Give the backbone structure.
Amino acid sequence: MSLHKKIEVDVLIIGTGLAAVSVALHLPSEMNVLLVSKGKRTETNSMRAQGGIASAYLERDHSSHQADTIQAAKGRTDEETIAFITAAGRQVIQELEAFGVTFDRQATGAYALGQEGAHTIPRIFHSGGDRTGERMMTQLLRQLPHPIIEDTVITELMTVKQQVVGARGYQGETPLLISARAVVLATGGIGGLFTASTNEPCLTGDGLALAAHVGARLSDLGYIQHHPTVLLHDGVSHGLITEALRGAGAYLMTADGRRVMADHPQGDLAARDEVASMITATRCKEPVYLNTTAVERLETRFPTFVEKCEMLNIRPELVEVTTGVHFLMGGIETDQAGRTTVPGLYAVGETASIGLHGKNRLASNSLLECFVMGKELALQLQLPDRRPLPEPTDISGINVMTDPSLTDVLRVNLELTGLEQTLRTYKKQRSEPGRGREAELNRLKHTTARLLLEGAIERLKGEQQDEQMASATTA
């Protein structure tokens, strides 16, 4: 006899960020939908988002936004997907306003648009300055017609004849079984696996491990974006500094006043991977600072940044910065309806891989992706007949923490030898089997770390092969 608490729903959504909430908002209110949150419902990267949401709402069409997305991505994209999202994105601002979200405006009443890295024109909509994510998510969560269970982790997807039919996990420390006609993975990012990250600490890429366990196809896990500007004080990272500051006139410099991005044609608003690479190279020799003296109305436009500086008792006009793990471009492969390669299993948001971001995500396209693709998944969702859950098997976890060397090797500039050595360490790692919530979460973390290492190695070997082929062609 099972001692699990049992719940039966039509749709189980794992996560409470914008992608998860968008799915839930666009499903019928009478449908039996449940969202589960690993911690509190507010502990998401969407809630932390400072920069805003990119949209071609005020442009003639979406072609410029589409072109900027393709240019920043540097390959490995699906142009049909990019065209769809940037075109659908033109309606997103009005749709969010219909849910009660308000966007910043000038004194004239016009939208106060920002410009960020690799965008050729201002098209970033903000709410509350650099509090866009907090303002947006707070309002949308109020509108949600479906329940959320907090402090609930999913540690295994349940399958019958290769179809996902539910999940098991823990509500608090109580074992939980959930029967569902569809399961949606919206588990967010991977930053919690690293010592320096812009992410919510509890987000450790659980969706990747869950999907891999049931045989879903994953792709491009070697492409991890590092945000160029993480506040550094006394050698400790203190979270993201929004790119919108550079769009408002802030710039990167060394202690002697030299502009770090002076030789780049796009200057301080170059693509994130290029800025992060330059900062990393410079910091090998000397510190890098963000100078904000040219930013007008700093306190009102960037209250999150100013308050963080006040908390640390430092002046916001000049702060030291470093890079930090920010966003995973790859993930669980899906089509435009969010379907994975496993029946009954869907994925959306950062945990999904749809060909939008390529090798480098364009700034403020993440909130756009979450809302558009969450809505599309909901509109196209077709529920199969319910299948009974199989008897839960006794799956043990592991009593081991993620190796801190993961941060050292999955850095801005990847190096094959270090990656392979760390992967061997993970594969050889001996750990005592464990039982319960924490042990099973450790198993998921260990699996995700291994998947990321394998993805990075695959990326480097592919790039080396491409270079050899290019050399042979030109020889």
The mean pLDDT is 95. The CA atoms of residues 166 and 193 lie 26 Å apart. The chain has 15 helices and 19 strands. The two ends are 70 Å apart (CA to CA).
